[in-house]
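User: Structure tokens for this complex, please. No commentary.
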Amino acid sequence: KNQVEQSPQSLIILEGKNCTLQCNYTVSPFSNLRWYKQDTGRGPVSLTIMTFSENTKSNGRYTATLDADTKQSSLHITASQLSDSASYICVVPMFSGGYNKLIFGAGTRLAVHP
Amino acid sequence: SQTIHQWPATLVQPVGSPLSLECTVEGTSNPNLYWYRQAAGRGLQLLFYSVGIGQISSEVPQNLSASRPQDRQFILSSKKLLLSDSGFYLCAWKDANYYEQYFGPGTRLTVT
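Assistant:
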């Protein structure tokens, strides 16, 4: 079954601290993996897209890693800010019915406290 | 630049009433369009997608329907809402030649 599972479900950290979010997927064949940030009550916004050949990709204080062999990805947030409080969603497309259907993880809800 | 709009932002409707949610995209042509629903604590669920005017594909059998009357307009409808239709509805667009999907601001629907 093609799935995307994320951990932890929720996380609380203090402002300025680092954290790492995990994503495991079983989607096959694999083409790319995306991380989105979703503020409460808003639509998701893309943070990064990683293709099969990429192991690490950074976007400011966000760094995503990908291990296509173990089908795992992580999102590392450095020097967290209050504005990082949001849900972080891991997404992997699956080719089905002639197009790429996105398989979404349930997300990790991050709360950054002062 | 491209922008995507959804309205209304929030909606409270009684069970059995009709529904119409609208999504429009600006700054692009012939986009792929998508309707998703997000339940609390769950991943986004694809409801419908469209690759062109009048072309609608449904992912999940339900009492919802979608239409694309114009190239950059996507409408989600229901004749009779159920309690289980409550949720956060997101429209998204994508250029057919690229990976990225761009999401709208969403509509929070509460069926009472």
